[in-house]
Amino acid sequence: MVAMSEGTALRHKKLTGLSGALLLAVIVTAYANHFHNGFHFDDAHTIENNLSIRELRNVPFFFHDATTFSSLPSNQSYRPLVSTLLAIDYHLAGGLQPFRFHLSIFAIFVALVLLLAFVVYRLVDNAWIALGAAALYGLNPANADTVNYIIASSEVISTLGVIASFAVYLAFPQLRRSYLYVLPAAIAILAKPTAAIFAVLFALFRVLFEPKEARLRETRLQHLAEIVTPFVICGALLLFVQHMTPHTWIAGAANTHNYLITQPYVTLLYFKTFFWPSGLSADYDLNPFVTTGDARFWIGFAFVVFIGATAIVAALCKRTRVIGFGLLWFLVALLPTSLFSLAEVMNDHRTFLPYIGLVIAIAGAAALLVAGLDRQRRKIAATCAVVLFLCANGYATFQRNKVWKTEETLWHDVVLKSPRNGRGLMNYGNTLMAKGDYAGALDYFHRAQPLTPQYSVLLINLAIAEDATKQSSQAEQHFKEALRLAPSNPDSFIYYARYLLSHSRVDEARAFLQSALELSPTDLTARDLLAQANGQTQSRSAAQTPESYLTLSLQLYRDERYAESIVACRAALALRPNYAEAWNNIGAAYNKLGRYDEAAAACEQALLYKPDFELARNNLQYAREKLNASAK
Questions:
Q1: How many Cα neighbours within 13 Å face the side chain of 240?
Q2: What is the pLDDT of residues 383-432, one digit of tens each?
Q3: Which of 215, 426, 539, 568 could disulfide-pair with 552, CB 3.0 to 4.6 Å?
Q4: Is residue 363 a contact partner of residue 324, using CB atoms and an 8 Å limit?
């Protein structure tokens, strides 16, 4: 009898192992067509145009200098683990070969799915349900956008860290007293700060699944420490990340109130997308609500209240507490991106961690259902579930991967799904412009203008297309307007400089490129263009004197075109490096732009060359006062 039991257990283990291997094979098949998909979105400034990731020797710098994360100052957040992975991929690929980048992300994703299966198994004590839940997560097309988007490896790494911490806690009870289970999640915060939500998720887990021995007085303190310690460690890491993040980083939300009142409805849309992933878009056109009078706010609010109440009621009942824990996981894991206002109100990669909660809830419901069925019905139900996962989710994921093949396929899909998305219209226009279809590009740019009239990147692309179609005067006007709207964006300087170079205005171009490199020293495009400008023959007319450039800078300053005023001063300094008046004008313009560190440095240069320069002294004092106020 014992031997038979052992034999049955062995066969069950082998069958489970084979099922796990089948799960991996299915996931690999579903994603087989994604490995050569291109770079998109923020991949441009974090990978393609980021000089820092091109040398492995830069890896130590990633951990103490967040400016190495991106060539754009507004996107320079502290994510050293992501930069390290990118540098390794770049080195192994020998350049910008998407295959190697996708391969590393996919390997992390597979590890995440396997660990998720283990965690779910420990929650429901059913290997088949655990494998089915992992299959649902691994093959859900709603997750495909995150896996396809290379820089979204931050989401995959951070989610792996959270799940790994649960896995370590469940698999190695002997390590609990040393709190090593917190380590994976804590490290993952260095990929994305949202991993810190592990502390809250773990506290829910420990409260809902408290072992009997925790009720004993002698172990109560130990179990309390298990809950409190993750908050201390994750909180300390969060403060460290905040300290390391440059002040130039911008979250992007224009109005916090509008962002927050939109999130309940967004939560409803995320919930719907998990179960019915139709209409997936890489860039949704949902605009922030402006008032709580919007009916969608109340629909979303009612949904959140209903799900929250359902989760609490389910969590209080022993038979349904896995369902309750999963629903609470979903809601809690959405809090970091729901309460912290970001540029877009909705983005599918933000659900990568929250969707694990829905998978856990479904596993809990499946465990209840299976418990009420006889053995034969369990087999039929499990077989039907596997077929459904393979046929529906796998096929949908395979099709979704095709959308991410190129910039053209991605943005064409966005335009179809989100026809009033100004950024989508602009980027699809960019793909047409890349093919030489300037008329088609201009059509999409003009359609985007009324939707995003203050979008500097759109104006830059519009100017490029206008210049290519011999509309030089309109092009220059749009370049200048982009500079006015985004004086801290290196692209505003770089593409205007490229335009100036093409029109043989070398000195002006050089000054703009120097300003761009001040903002982003690792920008490869700016470096290449500056080398090109330096290599061109310079023939300055008599009118191009330091005094003429200074006069121009003063006029631009009076017109509130501060970025251009700085560029004019740099042109003057190229001719006369010790020109105190030019340094002072730069300081004054930087003060107007709110870049007080650079303002103070410029004014100090002015006083170095002209110690009795009272105007420079006043501008320096103003900059220092602002810096002191900011520090306080």
A1: 18
A2: 666 667 667 888 999 999 999 999 999 999 999 988 889 999 999 999 99
A3: 568
A4: no
Rounded CA-CA distance 63/69 in Å is 10
Task: State the maximum Cα–Cα separation within the chain, in Å, rounded to a whole number.
Answer: 104
Cα(446)–Cα(467) distance, rounded to whole angstroms?
15
- Compute the residue count for the chain: 632
Which amino acid is located at 559 in the chain? D
- Alpha-helical regions (H) of 372-523: 375-388, 394-403, 407-417, 422-434, 438-448, 456-468, 472-485, 490-502, 506-519
Pairwise CA distance, residues 465 & 109, whole Å: 40
342 φ/ψ angles, rounded to the nearest 5 degrees: -120, 175
Contacts of 546 (CB under 8 A, 6+ apart): 572, 573, 575, 576, 579, 582
**Dihedral in degrees, nearest 10, Cα atoms 448, 452, 457, 463:** 50
| Tens-place pLDDT, residues 608-619 | 888 888 889 999
Q: Residue for token digits 């026809």?
A: 419
Asked if 270 and 243 touch (Cβ cutoff 8 Å), the reply is no
Long-range Cβ contacts of 203-212 (<8 Å, 24+ apart)? 203/227, 203/230, 203/231, 204/325, 204/328, 204/329, 204/332, 205/166, 205/325, 208/315, 208/321, 208/324, 208/325, 209/123, 209/321, 209/325
Query: Read out DSSP for 73-93?
Result: GGG----HHHHHHHHHHHHHH
Residue 162 phi, psi (nearest 5): -65, -50
User: What is the rounded distance in angstroms from the CA atom of residue 515 to the CA atom of residue 564?
Assistant: 10
Q: List the domains of the chain with CATH numbers.
A: 2-403 (no CATH), 420-486 (1.25.40.10)
Closest CA to 16 of 107, 116, 117: 117
**Whole-angstrom distance, CA of residue 621 vs CA of residue 600:** 8
- For residue 286, the 8-state DSSP code is P
Per residue in 532-571, pLDDT tens? 887 764 444 445 788 888 888 888 888 888 888 888 898 8
Give me the residue label for tokens 């930087």. 590
